[in-house]
Amino acid sequence: MQTRFEMKRYQLLLGLLLMLASTCSLPAEIFTAGVKRVVFLGDSITYDGHYVADIVAYHRWHPPQREMEFINLGLPSETISGLSEPGHAGGKFPRPDLHERLGRALAKTRPDLVIACYGMNDGIYLPFDAGRFAAFTNGMIRFHQAVENFGAKVIHVTPPVFDEVKGGHPGYANVLDVYSRWLLDQRTNGWQVVDLHFPMQQKLADERAKNPAFAFAKDGVHPDEAGHWLMAKEILKGLGATGLTGMESPVGMFQDAAKGNRILTLLNQKLSVMKDAWLTEIGHKRPMPAGLPMAEATRRAEELEKQIANLTN
Hints:
single chain, alpha/beta, Rossmann fold, five-stranded parallel sheet, about 5% strand
């Protein structure tokens, strides 16, 4: 039978163990156990794919690790509003509308989770207009309902910052502020929304105060790799990831920087091969080169995966 002293010692030891467990716990799992396939949707920034690859890398090389498939379905020029400015692309084609391909994309990829980043193109690079804003919000609501009706979860991401210093279009930065605030307000309706717009805006302002020539995007729209890494970090933090504070590059996720660079390059190539194959398989209305047939793309992706495995074993 335990004495009162032994009982107190046991309680003290248990308390210390619980405290140690709380301070030494593994990073939070950013995707729930039921998620087996994640699809990213967006415009040319998502199509570029670097922030997607950075998120995939974090998942793969941080415990707890699970087998998951990630598919990038970003399409350049696309909007969720269905709007297109007159003479887009020199009059060659209007901006594609996500809703034209959304049903096919969901049916063919069958995701458990969709991560969507829209807004950059949806104001058509013009000052704020109530009609364009309504098209954006209505398009976003239609999209959200379509994904939920399919049976998948959806995470919305506010659009990256628009840099008027580099991109012109006076007043357009404010348009994206308004669109981003609306998305964030949807949290009260139960939507899961990750904000990268305002943290990216603040980082741009902070860096430009130190160096007036600083920019994430030379054209005001498309972030460089540093911008994509900031996007990835904000999305990862929004999903519960830890250990990213002060990490200035995705290479910081790896102990060996040279290997890390090579792994990220190969991972980008693998995601890109499958992205173009999926876009062609699903179909869309934007003129662009066709991807490889799915079987050939899968073989190429498997070859790239072997190279990645050789670097990580």
